[in-house]
Amino acid sequence: MFVYFVKRSFVALLVAITVSIVSFLLLHLSGDLAQSLAGPSASAADVAQVRTAYGLDRPIAVQYLDWAGRAIRGDFGESFFLKQPVFPIIAERLPVTMTLGISALLIALFVSIPLGIVAALRPNSWIDRLALTISVFGQALPSFWFGLLLMMLFGVTLRWLPVSGTGGWQYYVMPAITLSYYSIPAFMRLTRAGMMEVLASDYIRTARAKGLRTMTVLFKHALRNAIIPLVAVAAVQLGFALGGSIVIEAVFSLHGVGYLGWESISRADFPVVQAIVLILACFYIVLTLLADLLNAFLDPRIRVR
Amino acid sequence: MSALLEIRGLDVRIPLATGTLHPVRDVSLSVARGETLCIVGESGCGKSLTSLAIMNLLPKRAQRSASRLVFDGIDLTGLPERHMADVRGDRMAMIFQEPMTSLNPAYTIGNQLEEALLRHRKVARKAARDRAVYLLEKVGITAAGQRLAQYPHQLSGGLRQRVMIAMALMCGPRLIIADEPTTALDVTIQAEILRLLAALQREFHMAVVLITHDLGIVARIADRVAVMYAGQIVEIGPVKDIFTRPLHPYTQGLLRCIPIPGRTRPGEHLGSIPGMVPSLIGKIEGCAFRNRCPHAFPACTTTEVALVEVSGEHGYRCLLSPQASAANAAEMAAV
Amino acid sequence: MTVETYVDLANVLPTSAGSMFRRRMLGHTTFLVGAGILVVILAVALLAPLLAPHDPYAQELSRRLVPPVWDDGGSWTHPLGTDQLGRDYLSRLIYGSRISLLVGFSIMILSGIIGTSLGVVAGYFGGRIDLVINFIVTTRLAMPVILVALTVAALAGSSLRNVILVLGLLLWDRFAVVTRSATLQIRALDYVAAAQAVGCSTLRIVASEILPNVLNVIIIIATIEMANGILLAAALSFLGLGVPPPLPAWGAMIADGKQYMFFSPWVITIPGVALFTLVLGINLLGDGIRDLTAPENRS
User: Fold this and answer.
1) Contacts of B104 in chain A (CB under 8 A)
2) Which of residues 255 through 274 in chain A touch C, CB cutoff 8 A?
3) In terms of CA atoms, which chain B residue is nearest residue A200?
4) How many angstroms separate the CA atoms of C34 and C26, rounded?
5) How far does A84 lie from chain C, in Å, by closest CA?
6) For the residues of chain C, what is the DSSP string, one character each?
7) Residue B56 · residue B44 · CB < 8 Å
8) Which residues fall within 8 angstroms of residue B215, CB to CB, at 6 or more apart?
9) How far apart are CA C29 and CA C263, in angstroms?
10) How confident is residue C24, by pLDDT bands cut at 50, 70 and 90?
11) Distance between CA atoms of residues B250 and A301, nearest Å
């Protein structure tokens, strides 16, 4: 078991390194960085000057190794735009995105697990169909549009919540709901399928034969097993959500890491972008490792080899 | 002394898209305290469903009806589920066929054992733990204390079945229903488990309803036997009567199919019962066994055959008189 | 099987309970509705020049933000109103369908080719090749797609071609994972072993034995990725780095309308509904196909 995790961690490290290489290459090869930095109205001489000043005329491998060498020590360079070290800038915005991501995950779980359970208990009933409809609609809804609709309804018409910006918990409600809507269909399907499969199993029959109360059978015995795949998927979903929060943060002007990424792209502030990509990738990788750990923790059959 | 379990006219119906399945038809039997009743029959004869019907553990779509279903003085028909749940696991317990999948893989043996007791009795956790250890030892599991912390997947099939038996005994039930408890186990372990069940039954003075398709098991441990075919009880009586004077052609056929040490001559053909079980959907006209019965006659197709009791609790469901039936049996044995 | 595949297989495996007959019916309805929606939108896209009342690019600054016909101030000249530059909304909507469909199909095909190739190769050859491809897939999954797509779009310039390229080169992961699983299953079957024993070349085995049987899951994933591609392209356009103006991309229309949405809500509602309907149609089609071709339905 331990050996397995060491191997996984090693692979994870390789993945992180590869991600950084790929993003570095994409950044430097998709277009002329010097041109973007200098701006559209710069002359050829200006662009050449920018190129030398930022060391963009060196071979790409050299540039990467230079960056990587410093990144290992935590030095992600300096923001072109803000003239400050990159890492603290990102670190400052990180809590916002984390709050958003975790809130969205919690909302998704609170909605989909009960719905999935009820749908599994009464297949083809009206509530099962309702869950299915929510599922189908949720996957078709463009997230940014949904966010705007919520904004119009709760921010303007009802005036319950602030329309946009960063601040106290009220500023996270609509963004979190918008972000959660994407995960709800998958979570609900998994819970429903998992519960249906588990409820048909022999140990549930044993539990009922022992005279255990329905709630005990449902939650202690059934859900405990049905939830195992869901937990792992939820962890991975959180990883995706953190990476994809950029759109929601842009819609709601929530100043998190995603918003910073968007700003940096429009400002050609590439050290920041490179660092954000790497950090988000690392979050995802850590979360997948965590998902595996959770799997092992929840299913004794995997644990003891 | 009144019977522990009394069933009259038990029916199970399951509505399907193609019609109504009627897998348990007019089943009547009784079990006295401390007695072992074996229900025998081939696959699909309705014996498992009968046991599930008694416990009210049928699938949701199934409908159960009975003119009389009384256990230990409690009328089970129309009993609300929460009261039934109080009875289950406490006074009436069940052991299932597949020990490999009958235990929850996410919890320890100890947890699942103690849970069975804690649900029905207000005792301390320690008391439940002690009882679990006591019963594990009783079912022949060594190092019982350590076993409590183990998970089901760490035990073999035979051990798991012993755990299931211990779990059924946690609350000291008056009746144990065992649905083919040894079918999924090795032959050598089968014998051990059966011996164990018999010993426990004597010690705790429990009644046992054992469901099986193996006549060998029946011969070994039954006090009384009920033979089922196509959802009905076709013969019921004390084990000695059933084996020495079987009255229903199906029972006679079954007995011919197994070799009997001392009686079956080497090289002799074993019997078989040609044909197939009739469909259990909808009504069955006349006797359900008629198209496989070597002694069928025209009335068998039209008459609804009732269970007729002969001497001393021996009953059978056939139009032939006891004498004619016995004569048939002797004739077939001589062949 | 990695954890990520749970989500994908949960999407691919049939979920409806109930009798086989009921499932076929349900599959039929879902399939028909989805196909119907797609056919309608396809027709709209193809017949755009005939259906659109005005030129989608023609600006008329004197008639800015005219409301749709059902609000006061609206008229049948511009049934869905006009945008902030006076362009007819209905026409832009109709022409916008071309962009969404084109983007969706192209991304689906590009990512499908890449993903299926990787998945089938990984599943068929196994061993080290499988490990390498798994590594590639994991790397791709670790990258934040939108961020990377935005970056590339910003650097390479936002154009229809670049949007399709960058998303097509990023969205192949689900294809790869699912075709790999399917290939593994099929490879274990006897008739593949028979083909190998007879001495068929690898390419021939892949083409004639494996691909036809993987086709079922490919089609289902194709609908998922087409929908995904359309939504992501719309998100890119919304953020200003997707399909460039003045092309009438639905996502861009929503972005343009954002500042006016509180007073002229139709500016964002209408293109949003269009996007939603198209994606819904694609999803329903995929669900319908999945339910109809579930193994239990095959005799």
Assistant:
1) 203, 206-207, 221, 224-225
2) 258, 261-262, 265-266, 268, 273
3) B59
4) 12
5) 21
6) --HHHHHHHHHHS----S-HHHHHHHHHHHHHHHHHHHHHHHHHHHTHHHH-SS-TT---GGGTTPPPTTSTT--TTSTT-B-TTS-BHHHHHHHHHHHHHHHHHHHHHHHHHHHHHHHHHHHHH-HHHHHHHHHHHHHHHHS-HHHHHHHHHHHH---HHHHHHHHHTTTTHHHHHHHHHHHHHHHTSHHHHHHHHHT--HHHHIIIIIHHHHHHHHHHHHHHHHHHHHHHHHHHHHTTSSSPTTS--HHHHHHHHGGGTTT-THHHHHHHHHHHHHHHHHHHHHHHHHHHT-GGG--
7) no
8) B40, B254, B255, B258
9) 39
10) low
11) 46
- Chain A residues in contact with B93 by the CB 8 A cut-off are 209-210
Contact state of B116 with A210 under an 8 Å Cβ cutoff:
yes
Instruction: Please list the ranges in chain A whose pLDDT falls under 50.
Output: 305
Q: Which residue has the tokens 């800015």?
A: C64
| pLDDT 10s digits, C79-107 | 888 878 888 888 889 999 999 999 999 99
Distances (CA, A) of C142 to A236, A237, A263, C146: 10, 11, 22, 12
This complex has an ipTM of 0.87
β-bridge partners, B238:
B224
CA distance A38 to C182: 50
Q: Is A301 on the interface with B (CB under 8 A)?
A: yes
Question: Residue range C16-44: average pLDDT?
Answer: 76
In order, the DSSP letters of B42-102 are -TTSSHHHHHHHHHT---TT-EEE-SEEEETTEE-TT--HHHHHHHBTTTEEEE-S-TTTS
Cα A71 to its chain centre, rounded Å, is 23
| Amino acid C25: pLDDT | 62
Question: In the block, which residue shows the tokens 């048939």?
Answer: B328
State which residues of chain B have pLDDT below 50. none
Residue C169 near residue C208, CB atoms below 8 Å: no
Select the residue from C1, C12, C139, C273 to test the A interface by mutation, using most A Cβ atoms within 10 A: C139
Binned at pLDDT 50, 70 and 90, residue C4 comes out as very low
Chain C touching partners, 3 or more CB pairs below 8 A: A
Instruction: Give B24 to chain A, closest Cα distance, Å.
Output: 20
CA angle A234, A197, C184 (to 5 degrees): 75
Angle at C38 between CA C43 and CA A193, to 5 degrees: 180
Nearest CB to A300 within list B81, B82, B106: B106
SS3 assignment, position A262? helix
Cβ neighbours of A299 in B, within 8 Å: 105-106
Q: Please name the residues in contact with C79: beta carbons below 8 A apart, sequence gap of 6 or more.
A: C53, C68, C69, C90
Is residue B35 classed as helix, strand or coil in its secondary structure? coil
Number of alpha carbons in the 13 Å side-chain half-sphere of residue B94 = 29
**Chain A residues within 8 A of C145 when measuring between CB atoms:** 243-244
Whether A209 sits inside 8 A of B154 (CB atoms) is no
Full-model pTM: 0.83
In chain C, which among 161-220 make CB contacts under 8 A with chain A?
Answer: none
Query: Which tokens hold the place of A12?
Result: 């994870």
Main-chain dihedrals φ then ψ at residue B246, nearest 5 degrees: -65, 135
Contact status of A157 with chain C (Cβ, < 8 Å): no
Across the interface, of A211, A224, A300, the residue whose CB is closest to B151 is A300
| Among the four given CATH numbers 3.40.50.1220, 3.30.200.20, 1.10.3720.10, 1.10.10.60, the one describing domain C25-55+79-297 | 1.10.3720.10
Contact A203 B164 (CB under 8 A): no
3-state class of B150 per DSSP? coil
d(CA C96, CA C278): 12
Run of H or E including A97: helix A86-121
